[in-house]
Write a structure and sequence with these properties.
Blueprint: E1 9-13, H1 18-29, E2 33-38, H2 41-53, E3 58-62, H3 68-82, E4 87-90, H4 107-135, E5 138-143, H5 157-177, E6 182-189, H6 194-202, H7 204-212, H8 222-233, E7 244-247
Parallel strand pairs: 1-2, 1-4, 2-3, 4-5, 5-6, 6-7
Helix pairs in contact: 1-2, 1-8, 3-4, 4-5, 6-7
């Protein structure tokens, strides 16, 4: 342990699995006390147990990030427990109804995708930022996707558009609050998440086809992506804001 987040209070959404769970474990090992939010109670509590078993400190708060009252309650609970919030990794999101053409997307899946992915990020920042402003410092990291960069990303219109919105709102927030000591960045990962694995199960050939497009020839483990989120949350990135950190094995170089 190098104590890169020693004494920090960190909030991580989507912490029941995947990148966010890996980040929660990493942040704890690096000295942070962690608040984990997710709609998946069992998974979130398992993440807390893993942190506790390793000697760290964490709390779980069941939260639907698309609901304003629940996000507000999450931040209030964090402040009630720890009196401050130093960094937030806003990672909660959904795949958006799988692979559908623009015509085949339903209004329900379109709305649900935007409410979780984009509105959820906005709500998290809406309630995280005032606390950080009061403190005079803070770091926020939002999770976007390579789908944002891929102009011809067929059959993922809702997902790609919601993730593009995350990049835009991240940059706007970075501009609005840089002078107040807040930093807002994003990560753009390719990693073995539960959503990606579920897609591979439905379409077995998709995994080999996808890996063939990655110059490094493999898909990252969640722990590798967690390192990027940690860096952006830590003081090591003190002069970085409004940045989208691509962690995709060269996928976007094609």
């Amino acid at each position: 342990m190098t104590d890169r987040l020693k004494g920090k209070i960190a909030l991580i959404t989507g912490g029941s699995s995947g990148i966010a769970r890996a980040a929660a474990l990493l942040f704890s090992r690096e000295g942070a006390k962690v608040v984990i939010a997710d709609i998946n109670v069992e998974g979130g509590e398992e993440t807390v147990r893993s942190i506790s078993d390793a000697g760290g400190e964490a709390h779980f708060v069941r939260t639907d990030v698309s609901k304003s009252a629940e996000v507000k309650a999450l931040i209030n609970k964090t402040i009630e427990i720890y009196s401050r919030l130093d960094c937030a990794f806003n990672n909660a999101g959904i795949s958006g109804g799988g692979w559908s053409s623009i015509v085949d997307h339903t209004e329900e899946t379109w709305n649900r995708t935007f409410e979780t992915n984009l509105k959820g990020i906005w709500l998290c920042m809406k309630y995280e930022i005032p606390q950080m402003l009061e403190q005079g410092s803070g770091a926020i990291v939002n999770t976007t996707s390579t789908a944002y960069f891929m102009v011809g990303n067929r059959y993922r219109s809702a997902y790609a558009a919601s993730k593009a919105g995350i990049v835009s709102v991240t940059k706007v927030a970075a501009l609005e609050y840089a002078e107040y000591g807040l930093r807002v960045n994003a990560i753009c990962p390719v990693a073995r998440t539960p959503a990606l694995e579920a897609m591979f199960e439905l379409h077995p050939q998709a995994e080999a086809d996808f890996i063939d497009q990655i110059p490094m020839g493999r898909i990252a483990a969640p722990e590798e992506i967690a390192e990027g989120a940690l860096w952006l949350c830590s003081d090591a990135s003190s002069y970085t804001t409004g940045h989208v950190l691509a962690m995709e094995g060269g996928y976007l170089c094609r």
